[in-house]
Amino acid sequence: PGLDPSPATFRPGVISVSAGFFSWDLIADEVVCEPGIYGLHGLPEGGPATMEMLLSRVPEGDRADLVTALRHMMTACGTYQVEYRVAGLDGVLRPMEARGRVVPGPDGRPARLTGFVMDTTTIWATREAERRRLHEGAERTSLTQKFTAALAAAVTMDDITAAAQAGLAIYGANSLMIVTEHDGHCLPVTSYGFEPEAARLLGDPVPSPGSPVADAIAGETAVFIGSAEDLASRYPHLAA
């Protein structure tokens, strides 16, 4: 039967990969693929290819292991799965995965290898991104624990400021203001990353005409300001 000329798309979850079916006649050494698979393997479309042609697109350092796997697959009928890399028409190396079945001929010996091959570049990129995310999360947790320990050990205001400055940098913060209550009044006691006048205005604890610190104290909740425009819109007297 003829093969569908359009390359298949395999969608596990939200990941899309280029994929298609192929058949390798072990006796005639002819490989027939869906058109898109030729391109993925750096071969021109049209007509059967040989395994030698396909292997020529595999990096020399990877070729011996793939040949060994192929020879093993050709010794007995059954299912298989193999991973390898190929150089595409653009010269870019792409990880591939093939899986399928070796079927016997009339004499019961392996005669044809059929299966499904897909470009796993997107899958590996997703796995790597997840690995990095987990690594960065673990690293941030470790740094946060060190930050908390440093704050717990701080005695003087300078110690607290130094610990906070180092710890908050983990989250991309580049400035800090500490406000404390004294004789019934809230007063900014230290800051970094602000010009003195900006620190005075932004840290003003008096509710009127208002400041981010005053609103945070009054509402007993965090105040998030996304941009200079947002600040000017909510606190016009601080626009400058």
Notable traits:
240 residues, alpha+beta, two-stranded antiparallel ribbon, 8 strands
Question: Could you give a short description of this structure?
Answer:
By secondary structure, the chain is α+β, with helices and mostly antiparallel strands.
Describe this entry's structure for a reader.
By secondary structure, the protein is an alpha+beta fold. It has eight helices and eight strands. The strands form two sheets. Strands 1, 2, 3, 4, 5 and 6 form a six-stranded antiparallel beta sheet that branches. The radius of gyration is 32 Å and the shape is elongated. Mean pLDDT is 80; it is low at 1-15.
* Count of alpha/pi helices: 8
Mean pLDDT: 80
Give the overall form: elongated
Unreliable runs:
1-15
Q: Share of helix among residues?
A: 25-40%
Q: What would you call the structural class?
A: alpha+beta
Order of helices and strands: EEEHHHEEEHHEEHHH
Instruction: Give the percentage of residues in beta strands.
Output: 25-35%
Distance between the termini: 75 Å
Largest sheet: 6 strands, antiparallel
- Count of extended strands: 8
Radius of gyration: 32 Å
